[in-house]
Structures are given as C-alpha cells and as structure tokens.
Amino acid sequence: VHQSKLDFFCKLGYGKQDICKVLENLGQEALEDDVLKELIRMGSKPQALENQAQPSPLKLVARGSCSTSPGLKWLGEDESDSSDHLRPIVIDGSNVAMSHGNKEIFSCWGIQLAVDWFRERGHTYIKVFVPLWRKEPPRQDSPISDQHILEELEKQSILVYTPCRKVKGKRVVCYDDRYIVKVAYEKDGVIVSNDHYRDLQNENPEWKWFIEQRLLMYSFVSNRFMPPDDPLGRHGPTLNNFLSKKPVLPEPKWQPCPYGKKCTYGNKCKFYHPERPHQVQLSVADELRAKIKVPLNLGKEEEQRNR
Hints:
Zinc finger (C3H1-type): 251-276
Number of strands: 11
Number of domains: 3
CATH topology of the largest domain: Rossmann fold
Domain C3H1-type: 251-276
Family: Belongs to the ZC3H12 family.
Cofactor: Mg(2+)
Oligomer: single chain
Helix content: 40-55%
Pfam families: RNase_Zc3h12a, UBA_6
C-alpha cells in the first residue's frame, strides 16, 4: 500500500521526501484525498509547476535574425492558445450533406464547407459522424456526390464512420445520432445540425438540456455555410459567445426613451433620459406634488410668525 501510494503521487510530480513525511503523519491507510490536502497544506508543489514558476532566462538573438525557435517568444506575447477558448465541434454529417444536396443528393462538399468554416475560426477539435454504408458505391435510391472528400477527411482524423453490418442480406445500421449527442455532451461542445433529436431528448433529461442549449443550426446560401448570429434567439448569446468557452459580455448600452420629456413613467421607465442624468426619476404627478408642497409650507411658517 505504501509503495502504490508513493508511486501514485510521484507520477503527479511530488517529491518522495514530502510524500513520506505525510504518510508518516497520517498513517499508511490514509485516503489519497487526505494525503493530497496535506501536501498542499505543507506547500509542496509538483515539479512541473515549480519549473513554470521559475522565470526562464532570456536568450540574446543577433540583430536582424529572423530565426525563431519554438522555445523563444516575443515579450508580451500571449502564450495561451486561442483554440483553448473555443468549444469542440461535432457535425452531423448526414444532416449537413443532405441539406447541401437539397435533400436529394448526399453532397460531401457541404461537409467540407462546414469543416472549413470552423477551421477558419480556429477550432481544432472537429468531428464529423457519417454512417459506414456511405462508404459503399452510390446507388440510384441514395446518390452521393464528391465521395472522395470523405476519404480525405478520414485521413485527417476528422471523419468518423458509425458502424453497420449486413445480416442475411439486410443492412443493420447503428443510430448515429446517439454517437453525435454523446460525444458532444462528453466534450462539452456544440452540435451542428438542423435536427432537433426529440427522441434523444425524451431518452435522457441531461441530453435534453444540452441539445436545447448547444444545438447550432445553419443554412447554405450559394455554397456558403452560414450559421445564425443569434443561435438561441434574439435575447440569447451571440454566435462568438455561443462557440467560446469564456463568453465576453457586452457593455450595457442605454437606449434613450422614445417619449423624451413627455414620458410619464418616471422612475419606472426602463429607458435613458438625458435631461435628468443625476436626478431621481420621478413621475410627472410626483414632481407636481413636490412643487406644490414647497409654497404651502412657506405660507404656514409666515402665519405662525405673525401670530
């Protein structure tokens, strides 16, 4: 038990001396979580984090030299990869191909257009799911165009064939939609399809929420892949925030009141009034009451003085 725990925490990068001290204090039967908490409390850090904390010495480069080694970076350059902030993309290949072919032809060129669109945005994890029987020669009842694109995407590890087989001359096809939703759910990504997957929504309540919030619909306009700018409606996030893990919230913009000075809503008005930026927004009736109370109070004070 001691050796297994020692090997486990050594793989995490902690020193053997620190691990032995903690095991002596807590005992050999201590849980791994307790040992890890004690290591953190002692201030012990993995070797990888210690190496990152130490500043690497800068190397001098001759003036005019254009050679850049992978270890050298310009000062002030952001080392974080932009692709880390983008969500994984899972494409329903059959839905995209049939949409591009006007529901008559399985157009592989439509899949290529969708993949290129996400590549240009910087997405690195892109998976396309297509049934395996689409690899067979086309038939009259199921025509396919540009079938060589599927082979190219498969070589690039982008295309994934869902399994199928023949039993007594009949084709047995696995449900590819379940593959699509399951992979997208596990990767916390986005599903690209015009299908609503209602049967899978009823099957799993977690999938229902995920499909409602992470389904990206699209359209093809003159061989151009075009997803909507507001995937979840007018009041939902923008397309950039929808496809990114860390959405950027827009600054609040105050819309001026369409009624202007004639507005009678007062402090209940949700719009901006430039004529009263630092004043409490009172209704017209309250403003009139406030103006009337001032002279009445002054008149009462004069009467008391005369008495």
